[in-house]
Amino acid sequence: MATSVYLSNLSALTVNSISLLDQCTSLTFTNTAEALEKTSFGGSSRVFTAGLFNNELTMTLYNSYAASETYATLAALVGTQTTVVATAVDGAVTKVFTLTNCYLESLPVVNGSLGELSTVDLTFMGGTYSVA
After folding, report:
1. Strand ranges (DSSP E) for the chain?
2. Distance between CA atoms of residues 17 and 29, nearest Å
């Protein structure tokens, strides 16, 4: 059985064309095709086909209020569509993952605990997923 093990590493991350690579601690792209049942009478098991794509991107960023950092970049994007591009490197292989016209529903503006660095968890929903 073949396996592939690699160290997670992004070489670039942009949200609305602004780099947030130095603020990001985790990122997950999920490419989902909604399951539509197409089982007919007489079938002995359920049969599904792909429906609409419902893509999602979640990320955790360190919170910063400085110009061109986390809050300044994301505050105006709440309730709008934007593009997120992440470039992953695995040895000699580079993949560019893009989610175009994805929707940012909410932005936690303050998230802090005593003795911890402030982070925000974001979810970008929908949009068109592509990989190059």
Report:
1. 10-15, 18-19, 24-30, 33-37, 48-53, 56-62, 81-90, 93-104, 119-125, 128-131
2. 18
CB 30 within 8 A of CB 57: yes
CB 63 within 8 A of CB 118: yes
Tell me which residue of 65, 85, 75, 66 sits closest to 129, measured CA to CA.
Answer: 85
Please indicate, yes or no, if residue 39 is contained in any of the structural domains.
yes
- Give domain status of residue 44, yes or no: yes
How far apart, in whole angstroms, are the C-alpha atoms of residue 48 and residue 76? 39
Quote the number of domains for the chain: 1
Q: What's the pTM value of the predicted model, to 2 decimals? A: 0.84
Q: What is the pLDDT of residues 68-79, one digit of tens each?
A: 889 999 999 999
Q: Measured on CA atoms in the order 132, 26, 112, 19, is the torsion positive or negative?
A: negative
Q: Please tell me the distance from the alpha carbon of residue 126 to that of residue 74, in angstroms, as a whole number.
A: 17
Residue 2, pLDDT score = 52
Read off the CATH number of the domain in which 19 is found.
2.40.30
Does residue 100 fall inside a structural domain?
yes
